[in-house]
Design a protein that fits this description.
By secondary structure, the protein is of the alpha/beta class. It is 54% helix and 10% strand. The chain has 15 helices and 8 strands. The strands form 2 sheets. Strands 3-2-4-1-7-8 form a 6-stranded parallel beta sheet, sandwiched between helices. A two-stranded antiparallel ribbon has the order 5-6.
């Protein structure tokens, strides 16, 4: 797609638990088969991660065409650059069918990359660096060098096992972008740079009352626990090839559940026995807190996007506001 303003695209974003799925399905019903949903969510791409991601139900997925859901195994990375490439192609294909492309999700890095594009080399990410340093402190830099060799053997081959600065940067680039340092160096203009589509129309679901969102987050996490989040993570751990430093397992909810199961095992308890009430309570507290922090970051990202049209998701008529605004922004189509 060469011109962003020729595309029939509408973006619907918001923090976790703000009602994006319900709004998207209502829009699909209003347009009666003339709309397709493209997920803008870095967790929904993973197969087998259904409960902790609040993935749409099979009935919801069947009610309208969905894209970029269940496209990666949890062992695989999926970068913002890959998302932009996939989403851009999907928008073209959806428009060619005479449909509106509705971009729905809460991964703000994906939205930003879609609007503005990506630089050839990812900027330093302090949080990622701290995580890598902590892992190195526990395991040693040779162990991280070995990890680098599994994802970027070309770069690892030219680095000494104790070259902490360069190992850290190579791992940081991969974790942040999903691209290897060797690939970026080999073809920076083709592999690392991604062109954005411009400031696409954006409806932003934002709470006027933050405690309302906090209550929704707590209710949703409780529902996930009731639905079997712990069992879902147990099943992922049982595969034997996943570990907590993978992007998939760092997703909110999965990280905290994995840590709870690690602690459970460290106490000498059988891996398959149920978590104790105290362990479940601690997991609940950590999961809700982490989800609140995620929501706070999502709202901060959204407020930096000048084209956004905010709808208070806690308003009684929020859904009707979204439907009306969508009709305006999409030209009534």
């Amino acid at each position: 797609m060469s011109e962003a303003n020729t595309a029939r695209v509408l973006c619907l974003a918001g923090p976790t638990a703000s009602g994006k799925t319900a709004a998207a399905l209502a829009l699909a019903q209003q347009l009666q088969g003339k709309l397709e949903i493209v997920s803008v969510d870095s967790a929904l791409v993973y197969c087998g991660m259904d409960i902790g991601t609040a993935k749409p139900t099979p009935a919801e997925l069947a009610s309208v065409a969905h894209h970029l859901i269940d496209i990666r195994d949890p062992l695989q990375a999926y970068s913002a650059a890959e998302f932009v490439a996939d989403a851009s192609l999907l928008i073209t294909q959806i428009n060619a069918r005479g449909h509106l492309a509705l971009m729905v999700g809460g991964t703000m890095l994906y939205f930003k990359a879609l609007f503005e594009g990506l630089d050839a080399m990812p900027a330093a990410d302090p949080a990622t660096r701290v995580a890598i340093e902590a892992r190195a402190a526990a395991l040693g830099w040779p162990a991280l060098h070995a990890e680098l060799a599994t994802v970027d053997p070309v770069t690892a081959a030219r680095l000494a096992p104790n070259d902490s600065q360069r190992i850290q940067r190579a791992l940081e680039v991969f974790r942040v972008s999903g691209l290897t340092l060797s690939a970026l160096h080999a073809a920076p203009n083709k592999t690392g740079s991604t062109r954005g589509l411009g400031a696409l129309p954006l409806i932003s679901l934002e709470p006027l009352d933050r405690p309302w969102l906090h209550a929704r987050i707590a209710q949703r996490f409780d529902a996930m626990l009731d639905a079997g989040l712990v069992q879902e993570v147990r099943g992922l751990r049982a595969r034997g090839d996943l570990h907590p430093d993978l992007p998939s397992m760092r997703c909110v909810g999965y990280r905290q559940t994995w840590e709870a199961l690690d602690s459970h095992r460290a106490l000498g308890l059988d891996a398959q026995t149920a978590l104790t009430p105290a362990e479940l309570a601690a997991l609940r507290d950590k999961g809700i807190f982490a989800t609140r922090q995620l929501a706070k970051r999502q709202i901060t990202w959204l407020r930096s996007m000048p084209q956004r049209r905010a709808v208070h998701c806690d308003a009684p008529d929020a859904l009707q506001q979204v439907l009306t605004l969508a009709a305006q922004l999409s030209g009534g189509s």
